[in-house]
């Protein structure tokens, strides 16, 4: 069985919104959706990687025992946060030739360093010998503020790009095993490198992804109770993990008071 593993680092930021954690839940949803559509044997895992930054052996285990790795990161000060850098630094010396890797990031806005965060991770993956990719030519970054929506809200187009990246991950694993069938798998999963030539309309996006978008944004209004739906749907504990007991908890950002419009 192939393993697709998503590494997340919640609570991630001082906003209290858990943007990258919420995006990770939807990614797992979409990856499993693609696996089911393809009828293949791929396990999709969601792993809280933050505690591992105190253990080289744990980092090596997480990086070495999956066929495809996805790193979900917030953005700090125009780039990668220190704990993600620490995690990647502990992987130095691993020989991960042939393994696949990608990343996505959340950020305060579309031009506040999320692309740097993704590029940092992809460059670190290549330093371990991995083969990296994105969705077509796009670095997948979600600006959670500085737009015509409430802070922290995912929009339909955000959810579509997240779905496309998840489906690309499944396609990359399938293509690795059966290169001659890659084109057929891509058509079956609705993936096209020239996606911009036939971009879905807002109505099409709403019909396809409106319900998932609403579930992603529900915690902003309903609090932790909204994660119960995700726990049931994914068969795992979906509430953001409590980092207060970690030995370096004092170095994490303190949650800020929510802002209102």
The gist of it:
By secondary structure, this protein is an alpha/beta fold. The chain is built from 8 helices and 6 strands. Strands 1, 2, 3, 4, 5 and 6 form a 6-stranded parallel beta sheet that branches.
The computed structural class is alpha/beta
Q: What characterizes the major β-sheet?
A: 6 strands, parallel
Gross morphology: globular
Oligomer: single chain
- How much helicity do the residues have? 40-55%
Order of secondary-structure elements:
EHEHEHEHEEHHHH
Radius of gyration: 18 Å
Description:
- β4 (100-107), α4 and β5 form a beta-alpha-beta unit.
- Strands 1, 2, 3, 4, 5 and 6 form a 6-stranded parallel sheet that branches.
- The chain is of the alpha/beta class and 261 residues long.
- The longest helix has 22 residues, at 156-177.
- The radius of gyration is 18 Å and the shape is globular.
- It contains 8 helices and 6 strands.
What is the fold's blueprint, element by element?
Layout: E1 2-8, H1 19-38, E2 42-48, H2 56-64, E3 68-73, H3 82-89, E4 100-107, H4 114-127, E5 131-132, E6 140-143, H5 156-177, H6 182-189, H7 202-222, H8 227-234
Parallel strand pairs: 1-2, 1-3, 3-4, 4-5, 4-6
Could you list some keywords that capture this structure?
alpha/beta, 261 residues
